[in-house]
Amino acid sequence: MQEIRLASRPTGWPTADNFELAELPTPAPGPGQVLIRNRFMSVDPYMRGRMNDVESYVAPFEIGKALDGAAIGEVVASNAEQVPVGATVLHGLGWRDFAVADAAHVRVVDPAAAPTLSAYLGLLGMTGLTAYVGLLDIAQFRAGDVVFVSGAAGAVGSVVGQIARLRGAKRVIGSAGSAEKVRHLVDDLGFDAAFNYKDAPVRQQLRDAAPDGIDVYFDNVGGDHLEAAIGSLNKFGRVALCGAIAQYNETSAPATPRNLALAIGKELNLRGFIVGNHRDRMPEFVAEVGGWLRAGEIESRETVVEGLAAAPEAFLGLMRGENTGKMVVKLG
Ligand code: NDP
């Protein structure tokens, strides 16, 4: 079997040299364990934080050891009755082609209930749940709201915008990093307006797209985007602080937002969240978003990179904006 290990910790932007591919004998499952042949693994922005040796809500990766993260595959050997050979399972041992896991730590899923297995890592998985919980519970979205989402053509952002549209937003605005992504948001995903944040200051482009202000901001980016949103938010506006990807590879503290004091007079509610603490919302989320998927009302775009050896490049590409929708790696 093969696995990708952390070779060294990056300072600033990571490079391919921070990763190494290792070959080792395929292990046999012990009592209560299963051997899984991985089919898809996820690469996610939060993994950048795990490359640093700092305390966080999730443990750092260790130098010389395999990275980990969400993956889906098939059980090829089993010492656990409840997870038989042939079962399709979701688990946390990505970044390798074969994985031995405790049966108690895998979730059996129905491959026929999704358009592709990888959808369990994207629209129908933690990515979709992040969008659902962040928009509906954290930002307290209501029909009639004007919603702005950054990172809008990415995995989480594209779902946020579509849920807002389907739940009756007055107007959905997205920002993304290329003309093609802006076109995709408006033409394919039904956003009312979108802009390329690289074209002109976000503050100005957001004001033009939302002359009457916004009610909800779903923040995937932080920095200038958050500052612009605070400026455009209406009284009692709500912000879901989901991510701050603009600063993940920076080596100094962010200079923006500089206008946080506006939150006082506008009586804004800015609230952070970690999706892992909202798993109780999974049943409602799967029922509602799964229904839209079956009805063809929501799109689940993915960018698929082939092969374990290309996983570091997929991860680096994610931070450079090379993905539209969820970035996944196809294995085997
Ligand atoms: P995406 O699919 O959105 O991929 C990341 C995207 O970020 C890129 O495609 C790129 O798109 C954009 N980006 C990169 N650098 C910048 C920058 N400097 N300014 C603006 N955009 C940038 O990833 P996810 O959907 O998986 O994650 C989106 C956000 O949500 C991240 O911040 C992540 O950390 C966070 N997250 C938080 C969770 C939680 O529990 N709180 C759970 C899951 C994700 P572009 O071409 O548009 O620049």
Automatic annotation (TrEMBL):
The Enoyl reductase (ER) domain, residue ranges: 15-329
S-adenosyl-L-methionine is among the record's keywords: no
SMART domains found in the cross-reference section: PKS_ER (SM00829)
Pfam families per UniProt: ADH_N_2, ADH_zinc_N
Species this chain originates from: Actinoplanes regularis
Domain of life: Bacteria
GO MF annotation: an example: oxidoreductase activity, acting on the CH-CH group of donors, NAD or NADP as acceptor
InterPro entries documented for this protein: ADH-like_C, ADH_N_2, ER, GroES-like_sf, MDR_fam, NAD(P)-bd_dom_sf
Protein name according to UniProt: Enoyl reductase (ER) domain-containing protein
Keywords attached to this entry: Oxidoreductase
Coiled-coil positions: none
